[in-house]
UniProtKB/TrEMBL annotation:
Binding residues annotated for ATP, in chain numbering: 44
Cofactors: Mn(2+)
Name assigned to this protein: non-specific serine/threonine protein kinase
Gene3D superfamilies referenced in this protein's UniProt entry, alphabetically: Kinase associated domain 1, KA1 (3.30.310.80), Phosphorylase Kinase, domain 1 (3.30.200.20), Transferase(Phosphotransferase) domain 1 (1.10.510.10)
Chemical reaction(s) catalysed: L-seryl-[protein] + ATP = O-phospho-L-seryl-[protein] + ADP + H(+); L-threonyl-[protein] + ATP = O-phospho-L-threonyl-[protein] + ADP + H(+)
Cellular component, GO, one term: nucleus
Length: 422
């Protein structure tokens, strides 16, 4: 892949763009440096028009919301999301050693000891996802990155599903994934358990890195799917008995008898040499939430604030008029609530802060509820401010919104400019 230089381009007066790291179906990824801190990051750049035309809008919204909620040492860290009129920028953790696929290609295959390290980290990350109701659905070598310390990082959650997508039959039904890694029950199109489907993909990954080739592969997609559906694969002669036993249970075509994540943790090959599942440290923002009561947005809170793909709406009031009920701000939650109190001062409205909820109630003279202002943490720098007011018939609330709160919301809203060049 030819390198494409963007040296000298600065995003939002904050990130200096470097060399091109990779190109995907809907994005380009660049090396970048935080001008203020010197921290190296990766910037995933997506063209809004191409995303809409290519049908990737739901994938991007899903990836933003999920990465904002999952905090694990083996899951790529999303630092912030920026947007201009034409582009969306993910600022993410830099995995400088590239894809696991490249590591396997260089060595032909990995030793079982080396493969065990990566597989343990993969299972730890997948277990964390499942415990938060997230099912990746596209686990493959291309979506597993390595950092400078040779630690695995799971990325690309664009095809992921969450619990609220499960139908009344208890199963997911969307057919998705990469052909060589997809579980047979997904091909059957009768519904599938997201966790068991992820386990199958983990099995394909483990087979590939220890054998040096995929267990299921064929140029003819029909033949490939037939092999997957029947579980037709052969072990290479150098694979140990313990690893064969684990792979057989991972690549069990029956999801009901397929090994579970908890059973993997007890497997002899997995535990060879001793293993203790790392306890994931709670991020500072989560500790802050427990101290202050300001809620951190969970997996799909963010999507509920966004209308369509125009994610720039997260950073600015697009219409400039009408009843916008939320904005994204860089002010602190505490300062935002102070400013709400300041703008209603001198009116008959009373502001009462709500304990353990990160917000405040707005009440009239007789204690009638006019509205509620809620503040959610989005990233370390940004918060979402939401105004929920009573129905349109509430004259006092409507006047308060028009004359006091809406002008404040416009002031609070973070409005980034287009990227500039030095």
């Amino acid at each position: 892949m030819a390198e494409e230089s963007q040296n000298g381009v600065v995003l939002f007066e904050k990130y200096e763009i470097g060399k091109l790291l990779g190109v995907g179906a809907s994005a380009k990824v660049y090396h970048a440096t935080n001008i203020k801190t010197g921290k190296r990051v990766a910037v995933k750049v997506m063209n809004k028009r191409k995303l809409i035309n290519g049908g990737f809008s739901a994938n991007i919204e899903r990836e933003i919301s999920i990465l904002s909620s999952l905090h694990h040492p083996n899951i790529i860290n999303l630092f912030e999301v920026l947007a201009s009129k034409t582009k969306i920028y993910f600022i993410v953790e830099l995995a400088s050693a590239g894809e696991l696929f490249e590591e396997v290609a260089k060595q032909d295959k990995l030793t079982e000891e080396h493969a065990r390290k990566y597989f343990r980290q993969l299972i730890s990350a997948v277990k964390h996802c499942h415990s938060h109701g997230v099912f990746h659905r596209d686990l493959k070598l291309d979506n597993l990155l390595l950092d400078e310390n040779d630690n695995l990082k799971v990325t690309d959650f664009g095809l992921s599903a969450v619990k609220n997508q499960i139908r009344p039959d208890g199963l997911l039904h969307t057919v998705c994934g990469t052909p060589s890694y997809v579980a047979p029950e997904i091909l059957a199109k009768k519904g599938y358990n997201g966790a068991k489907a992820d386990v199958w993909s983990c099995g394909v990954v483990l087979f590939a890195i220890t054998a040096g080739y995929l267990p299921f592969n064929d140029y003819n997609i029909t033949v490939l799917y037939r092999k997957i559906y029947r579980g037709q694969f052969r072990f290479p002669k150098w694979v140990s008995c313990d690893l064969k036993n684990l792979l057989s249970r991972l690549l069990d075509t029956n999801p009901e008898t397929r090994i579970s994540i908890d059973e993997i943790l007890e497997d002899p090959w997995f535990n060879s040499g001793g293993y203790k599942l790392d306890r994931v440290l709670v991020k500072e923002q989560e500790l802050e939430e427990s101290r202050t009561g300001f809620k951190t947005l969970n997996a799909f809170d963010l999507i509920s604030f966004s209308t369509g793909l125009d994610i720039s709406g997260l950073f600015e009031d697009q219409n400039g008029s009408g009843l916008a009920e939320w904005v994204v701000s860089r002010d602190t939650p505490e300062r935002i609530l102070e400013r709400v109190e300041e703008v209603v001062k001198g009116t008959t409205v009373v502001v009462t802060k709500m304990k353990n909820c990160g917000g405040a109630k707005l009440e009239g003279q007789e204690g009638n509820l006019i509205g509620v202002v809620l503040v959610y943490r989005l990233t370390d720098e940004y918060v979402v401010v939401e105004m929920k007011k009573r129905g349109k018939g509430d004259e006092l609330g409507t006047k308060l919104w028009k004359n006091k709160l809406r002008p404040l919301f416009v002031e609070l809203a973070h409005k980034p400019e287009e990227p500039v060049s030095r």
